[in-house]
DNA sequence: TTGAAAGCGTTACCAT
DNA sequence: ATGGTAACGCTTTCAA
């Protein structure tokens, strides 16, 4: 293994100059640079990252904390990895299964300077404890945290949901069901509020008996559809789903039951994933990848001393064939 | 930020002794240890990982190369992360989108000692080029590589598929369809061979017109079911699926078409994921997490000087309600 | 433009 | 059981 010193010896220059070549310093003559680069190539030289990190105090690695990896957060993950990479940062993933001790491992890695920053997708550690790690490096969260000290790039779900309702109600839908996500999450609460407020505003019934909590997958959607049919009450004329997967399940099951969509039932998804595109499901475009970019931008200031603006994000209704 | 030297000064001992405490060396007296630990706690001391890595030449990080993250490889990913963690290693994921330059980044990180080893889930870099990086650290692959220099923990799909056939044929199934995966992968070829050999052995027809390539998801499965019904020929009496998701799709669509399962059509999945359990699909148990463990075990020798045995793995038929 | 030398924070060898 | 000190491989300041 050849190192800086070896290159320096062979080239006849000092380690400092070789280092300058490595870091593209302008204060090196063309010839010198050429000579040194030549020797590096011959020796198949590679700088040692650990030495660089030790010297600079930066690892160029960012940790990402998530309970598990699933399709919902994949656009965020991939979006973040991509923008980070563009700026020379690598992403290292901590899957925690919502285990606090595993989460602590990630926070400790921030202290130990194994990562320069942390981005939280989901985490069960208390906001207060998370905050105690802020002094070791910047931390940003996707989910909204109770603690204002921790930056967040979450979007207010209220607006997105309202968009869907303002689309459905003018079309004459009065009885609207909801397939929801995690019961106690801030997101779910916002959506529920949006629904209840809209219904009150238009003087329409709030169908609590058609709330279906904890729906995440295609199969959940199919289950919801069957459950709706088994209600003693008449079928709602529309359903808002927690995400496109659930909407896909509802759609498939509805067709299986020979219901016409949107004739008998209108369906609105959420997120605008590829699946909704494929199946032609009306949905709310949720700029998840852009949120991930914002997360990196938020980190950029403390991390690199470069302030990057937060993109102004908004939901958007994508009308397709299910409404 | 306090460091070893600071602790040494304050405790009155040398850096060497403090280091011994850190590394649980037995050659430190109880009192000394206690004193030093006490001071560490007071100063909220954390050892710097970069310094450790530079000094030891180990990062305790293992890179994982994959085209993208999806549900199929998730058990492998999670299985590997878990076993690695148990032995003090962290996993860092390189998603490459099958882009060779991104893959090269991962290999370069092995050279630069950012990771101690590499495990390949999927990669498009030529086996020859991959081999050229072997000298920088151990590399192991999940998929079978052409190059014998690179260890692999792939299992021979032939056996698993044969298991399914030996289950179906004695039950009287003579016309069997196949929903397959990547057309040119070694896995798919093995499965196809297993099918064709079994059919020849029992003197049954090889139904090439009921080969459905490139099936991966629930929706693909539903598509396959519809396609089978649209064939001019009579429906096969059974179908082997590339994975449980596809099987789930076939099952759902079959029911939607009012077919009896297994009466009109028997269905066999692959992998024994939670989904097959939930839906009661007969499937072939594929010990993916155990393969991931084997991958780590394979790395353990060159990585830690500790030889860990390869678990002898085998497929297993899990009979449920679809056959 | 270039060089010398002092860090960066550990580990590990050789003494004692 | 403990200490002194040379690595580890790079960056960065200060001089020249």
TrEMBL record, chains A, B:
<dbReference type="GO" id="GO:0003700">
    <property type="term" value="F:DNA-binding transcription factor activity"/>
</dbReference>
<dbReference type="InterPro" id="IPR046335">
    <property type="entry name" value="LacI/GalR-like_sensor"/>
</dbReference>
<keyword id="KW-0805">Transcription regulation</keyword>
<dbReference type="InterPro" id="IPR010982">
    <property type="entry name" value="Lambda_DNA-bd_dom_sf"/>
</dbReference>
<dbReference type="InterPro" id="IPR000843">
    <property type="entry name" value="HTH_LacI"/>
</dbReference>
<dbReference type="Pfam" id="PF13377">
    <property type="entry name" value="Peripla_BP_3"/>
</dbReference>
<keyword id="KW-0804">Transcription</keyword>
<feature type="domain" description="HTH lacI-type">
    <location>
        <begin position="2"/>
        <end position="56"/>
    </location>
</feature>
<protein>
    <submittedName>
        <fullName>LacI family transcriptional regulator</fullName>
    </submittedName>
</protein>
<dbReference type="Pfam" id="PF00356">
    <property type="entry name" value="LacI"/>
</dbReference>
<dbReference type="GO" id="GO:0000976">
    <property type="term" value="F:transcription cis-regulatory region binding"/>
</dbReference>
<keyword id="KW-0238">DNA-binding</keyword>
<dbReference type="InterPro" id="IPR028082">
    <property type="entry name" value="Peripla_BP_I"/>
</dbReference>
């Amino acid at each position: 293994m050849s190192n800086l010193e070896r290159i320096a010896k062979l080239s006849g220059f000092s380690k400092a100059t070789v280092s300058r070549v490595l870091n593209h310093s302008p204060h090196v003559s063309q010839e010198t640079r050429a000579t040194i680069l030549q020797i590096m190539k011959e020796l198949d030289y590679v700088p040692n990252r650990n030495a660089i990190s030790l010297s600079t105090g930066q690892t160029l690695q960012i940790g990402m904390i998530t309970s598990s990896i699933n399709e919902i957060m994949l656009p965020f993950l991939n979006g973040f990895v991509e923008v980070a990479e563009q700026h020379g940062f690598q992403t290292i993933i901590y899957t925690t299964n919502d285990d606090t001790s595993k989460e602590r491992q990630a926070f400790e890695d921030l202290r130990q300077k194994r990562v320069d920053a942390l981005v939280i997708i989901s985490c069960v550690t208390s906001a207060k404890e998370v905050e105690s790690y802020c002094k070791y490096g910047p931390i940003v969260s996707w989910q909204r945290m109770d603690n204002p000290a921790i930056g967040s790039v979450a979007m207010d779900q209220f607006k997105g949901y309202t968009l869907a309702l303002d689309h459905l109600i003018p079309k004459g839908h009065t009885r609207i069901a909801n397939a929801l996500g995690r019961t106690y999450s801030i997101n779910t609460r916002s959506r529920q509020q949006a629904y209840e407020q809209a219904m009150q505003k238009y003087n329409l019934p709030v169908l609590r008996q058609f709330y279906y909590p904890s729906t995440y997958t295609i199969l959940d959607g199919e289950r919801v559809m069957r459950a709706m049919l088994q209600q003693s009450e008449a079928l709602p004329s529309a359903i808002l789903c927690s995400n496109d997967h659930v909407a896909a399940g509802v759609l498939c099951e509805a067709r299986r039951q020979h219901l016409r969509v949107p004739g008998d039932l209108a369906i609105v998804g959420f997120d605008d994933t590829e699946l909704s595109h494929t199946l032609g499901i009306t949905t709310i475009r949720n700029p998840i990848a852009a949120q991930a970019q914002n997360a990196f931008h938020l980190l950029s200031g403390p991390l690199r001393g470069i302030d990057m603006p937060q993109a102004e994000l908004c939901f958007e209704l994508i009308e397709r064939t299910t409404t």
